[in-house]
Design a protein that fits this description.
The chain is mainly α. The protein has ten helices and no strands. It is globular, with a radius of gyration of 17 Å.
Length: about 220
């Protein structure tokens, strides 16, 4: 799957949350349901399911208060027949399967650097566990609704909009490791920057995909 405007719809959700504009998520939904691909209630339910998954992933990336505001914004404009009532994390457990799910995605994104990164946290053993079992196991590595590349297109804007240089670099590289070309990642980065600018924000710490080392 390549980067396309359609694939990035959930990245727009993350960018609105990441820039501190969760109240615009409802307006984004209204715009999308006005397009041809969402003419039926079933299609709109699928859209809601995917937007909800993007927002759930943003809980661990941006925090629950801002995401709660995004859900309120969406709920205000949903019609009853378009609502999706599935409960994706029901019955979740922090077990071995969850751990392996999180670790497998971390290995795909970071390869052999995980131990080095975790070592930078020193004696704070909670952080590697939270990263593997909670951030990824519970949130980011759950690919039942959004696959690994679609999830990355949520993760990157959610982080980049916070002007976080190191984490953005890691996830620009992650996009390359998942198969996007540098041209596609540059297009993705410019799209995120356009949203940031439209929201009245600016970035002063973020490098470009051209700065990312080749594997």
């Amino acid at each position: 799957m390549a980067f396309t405007e359609l694939v990035f719809d959930n990245g727009r959700v993350a960018a609105l949350i990441g820039t501190g504009n969760p109240s615009l998520v409802g307006a984004l939904y209204e715009y999308l349901v006005g397009t041809r691909q969402y003419e039926t209630p079933i299609a709109r339910q699928q859209l809601v399911r995917r937007m909800r998954e993007a927002m759930i992933k943003c809980v661990i990336l941006n925090g629950i208060p801002v995401v709660m505001e995004a859900f309120v914004s969406l709920t205000k404009v949903e019609k009853p027949e378009d609502q999706d009532h599935s409960f994706t994390r029901e019955g979740w457990q922090a077990d071995a399967i969850n751990h392996e799910r999180g670790l497998s995605v971390l290995i795909k994104l970071y390869r052999d650097e995980n131990e080095k990164i975790w070592a930078t946290f020193g004696s704070h053993k909670d952080i590697p566990w939270i990263s593997t079992d909670i951030s990824y196991g519970l949130f980011l590595a759950d690919h039942r609704i959004l696959d690994i590349l679609e999830s990355q297109m949520v993760i990157l804007p959610a982080i980049m909009c916070q002007n976080l240089a190191v984490a953005t670099h890691w996830h620009l590289r992650g996009c390359l490791r998942l198969g996007l070309t540098r041209i596609e990642v540059e297009q993705l980065q410019r799209t995120i920057e356009g949203i940031i600018q439209a929201c009245g924000k600016s970035l002063d710490k973020i490098g470009r995909v051209a700065d990312v080392e080749s594997d």
